[in-house]
Amino acid sequence: MPIYQAPLRDYQFILSELLNVYKQTDLRGFDEIDADLTDAILQGVADFSTDIMLPLNASGDKISKVVNWLMVRSLPLLGSSKLINNTYKMVGQH
Fold this sequence. Notes:
The protein contains three helices and two strands; from the N terminus they run H-H-E-E-H. It has helices at 8-18, 35-62, 81-93, and strands at 65-68, 71-74. The chain has a two-stranded antiparallel sheet with strand order 1-2. Helix 1 (8-18) crosses helix 2 (35-62).
């Protein structure tokens, strides 16, 4: 099973060092933001990405979808090169 670890330290660096969100007290609403609040939000998003989104992504990788003029169709598992080539041609025509 794939493993995903959200880059929390990178996000924290961007918020604190590059954007200086903790020093933006003159902007409405920013006076309530602190490191504990942003860390809790980032951790919640990281948990959601790992626990909810990652398993959905794995099942989507197994069964491909084709979008054809606003219709989404599931394809069988792509096991043969002939099926892959036909799918590629079908998508390229529309």
